[in-house]
Amino acid sequence: MQQPPTARRDPVVREHHGDRFEDPYAWMADRESPELRELLVGENAYATERTEHLRPLAEQVFEEFRSRIEETDLSVPVRHDRWWYYSRTVEGEQYAVEARVAIADHPERPTLDAGRPPAGEQVLLDQNEEGRDHEFFAVGASEVSPSGDLLAYAVDVVGDERYDVRVRRIEDGAVLDDAVRRTGGSLAWSLDARHFFYTRVDEAWRPFQVWRHEVGAPVEDDVLVHEEADERFFVGVGTSRDDRLVLIAIGSKTTSEFRLLDAADPLGTPRVVAERRQGVEYDIEPFGDQLLVVHNANRVNFELAIAPVTSTTAEDWVPLEVTSDDEYVTGAEGFDDFIAVSLRREGVTGIRVVLRDPACANGLGEAHDVVVGEPIGTLHVGVNPEASTPTLQVVHESLVTPRTVEDYDVRTRSLTLLKQQRVRGDVDLGRYRQRREWATAADGTRIPISVVHRHDVQADGTAPGLLNAYGAYGISSDPWFSVLRLSLLDRGWVFAIAHVRGGSEMGRSWYDDGKLAAKPNTFTDFVACADHLVESGIVAADRLAAEGGSAGGLLMGAVVNLAPQRFRFVHAQVPFVDALTTVLDPSLPLTVVEWEEWGNPLEDPTAYALMKSYAPYENVQPARHPSLLVTAGLDDTRVFVTEPAKWVAALRHADQQVEDPAQILFRTEMAAGHGGRSGRYDLWRQWAWETAVLIDQTS
């Protein structure tokens, strides 16, 4: 096969607000179509053939990656009740094993003994055994009952993020219940473990109901606890740290509501914490007889308040005044002796500890920030199930520092190392340099860029570079450590993250300035970051690559149209590239909830025109495009495979009018969803192949 498959063109007219668009590949909307499946198989075969020469390089990258990973490993055991809980991996096995050991047998935190699990281990869930007969296997929620004798867990064996629930007795592994199927994935136990709560999805696959199930009873006897009629809102369910409250979280992109149920009275009626108000978002953390409330009723960047646990109105929220207006509050956790507040300031994550002091009017005393000694990186609260803990588990990493877990003593302000991700082999992490650069956007806004490279890479305009971004939903692309990335850095690459508007790196306004009518800022910010890297000599003008996934894939598609000459190569992962068609169809998954992010093009001509101006699929034109790698998952329910398939077909058709068109590769994982393949070795091989393509296309 020397030529890629050709997709059939069969134009269907779409008309809205006086605009007429001919969609030649509308037939691909039928994901069950044998013709579409044949096209995807053909594209995979073409991609394999065109990259056959890269097989040795892909294998080399895979072995580099594998040789640096601790394949048999143990997570940091966490103390809860009578047990140490942890997960571990075994060399050669695809998935993790969830397990525990008794504190009575292991007073100190357990470790692996020459690769063997701790003595007296109780296996909660061996994902390798569960997933052995499935091409895809993923665990959603996994919850031990309050008494510690049962495990409820949700599994997806397709990749569509719809989960079947099983209840297992931990002592002997017997499955007591597997009647609840096709759920939204979240779970919560009643205090006596006679019941558990779960979510159901509607026809648009939106979690919209919470149900109560009695263990061992027929699913037909399940009771509906809450139903959300407003299609903008998702529903989730969980429990408080002390297991005494069942939390029902209800939220859209701009508005929140919580309901609480006494876990000791699972047959009761949930009560509202505070009625929803359009545009007001809040989150709660029950602790003792109080609630911590993080909300934006008065501040764009949110603030922390406290209320009685019995509160049913926002009028009970008393501000705690532990943060300032320019600090973006992203969460809070309450413990017996202190509160941990998660926040962002000037593009950097942080944790503020507020000690409890009964002598003070609000019960809170001195506050201070956790300091880990690295100015550029990511710091967040780890796993802390015990309210009585005198220490706070914190996790930090950066572009040059592996994931590090430490216990922070809130009184002495000292850190105790629990575990740092080990990088095997002869890797000297001191050889790598990270820094923060700033680009200037078209409107004068300064856009931060996180940059990492090997120490001997000079800003002389010769180095290849990879620019990564996401830029949507307020999700920040904070610096993270990657063993796979070392394979690029050691080949002289520069890796950079563009912290474009649409994320929340610089505060909540950073998100607001990259959504709805301001969405084009995301795209022009990214191009400005690319220009900065080239003009500063950090990367070569003809060796710059870009990558982004999902909504970041929409970004990739938009910049391919906006600045096709700027990038040598673009990797669009599960890309949301037919965004306007999708957001015009409220019957599709996630569409209605997306209107608060992108606008409602069905009702609003202005929103329609704006999306039409940047939607990648609608704006494909004959041009000298960069080389493209487009990757997708057949069972992806967030971005249907239809979208990248249509986009690639449109690009291939347009390129027929271009002399010497760039290479386009389109590969669909046929047993995967939005996150790619599920087994770790399978995923590593997928990444290694993608890295080999990247290296080849920018050489």
UniProtKB/TrEMBL annotation:
Name recorded for this polypeptide: S9 family peptidase
Keyword annotations of the record: Hydrolase, Protease, Serine protease
Residue span, Peptidase S9A N-terminal domain: 4-421
The Peptidase S9 prolyl oligopeptidase catalytic domain, residue ranges: 480-683
InterPro entries, per database record: AB_hydrolase_fold, Pept_S9A_N, Peptidase_S9_cat, Peptidase_S9A, Serine_Peptidase_S9A
Keyword Protease assigned: yes
Family listed: Belongs to the peptidase S9A family.
Domain of life of the native organism: Bacteria
